[in-house]
């Protein structure tokens, strides 16, 4: 069955949030049915939040402090000192991007061995959000964690995988310049030598999704069946 267009449509049954919310669970169910029992997959979905501050309360506290008196032991009132108004050097927002992922652990020591990152629009919409995901993937790879990036977002053109390759000093590929794609990466250590390996595919609206390897150890791999889990997600959500 083909990959649908979930990001350029007004249809109420093709909301990408529903897809991203359910797909990690479908992937977890499939992986846990085929992986050795010493490994376990778990979904993780975290929606970005904006911290709100009660400005009125802060202003009241500031007035109370500036007008207050501090009584010393000798009974002498001392006026509280207050600094001059600050020079504003930067006024910026720090929104947190959404996270949709599957984590795979080795149960004997509950060590993370693989991570599947399902890219959302907020992961691609601004450079700082892309940087957050790139830094996360780079850190995982250097801790010997297999990383898979699945990006079906057609409404943004940035490529997180390409930026990850840049950060690692790896050459760009055809897939690293694509709008939508799926790629698995792993790092292999041999003494002081570190090698990056990748398996990558372009995604195309109207075409089936690929199967990618998920490395649980240097010598143990299970398939990530994107097509089967995507279709299970669409059936469960009644997406035609």
Mind explaining what this structure looks like?
With 240 residues, this protein is an alpha+beta fold. The protein has one domain (16-50, 90-237). Helices cover 30% and strands 29% of the residues. It has six helices and ten strands; from the N terminus they run αβαββββααβαββββα. Helix 1 (16-34) crosses helix 6 (226-237) and helix 4 packs across helix 5 (160-168).
Into how many domains do the coordinates divide? 1
Rg estimate, integer Å: 24 Å
Strands of the largest sheet, in order across it?
A: 1-4-5-6-7-8
What series of H and E elements makes up the topology? HEHEEEEHHEHEEEEH
Identify low-pLDDT runs: 50-72
Largest sheet: 6 strands, mixed
- Secondary-structure-based class equals alpha+beta
User: How many runs of DSSP E, i.e. beta strands?
Assistant: 10
Q: Enumerate how many helices there are, as a single number.
A: 6
Helix content percent band: 25-40%
List keywords for this structure.
six-stranded mixed beta sheet; 240 residues; alpha+beta
A few lines on this structure:
This protein is 30% helix and 29% strand. With 240 residues, the protein is α+β, with helices and mostly antiparallel strands. The chain has one domain (16-50, 90-237).
Could you outline the blueprint of secondary structure elements for this entry?
Blueprint: H1 16-34, E1 39-46, H2 55-67, E2 69-71, E3 77-79, E4 99-106, E5 111-118, H3 121-124, H4 127-142, E6 146-151, H5 160-168, E7 181-190, E8 193-202, E9 211-217, E10 220-225, H6 226-237
Parallel strand pairs: 5-6
Antiparallel strand pairs: 1-4, 2-3, 4-5, 6-7, 7-8, 9-10
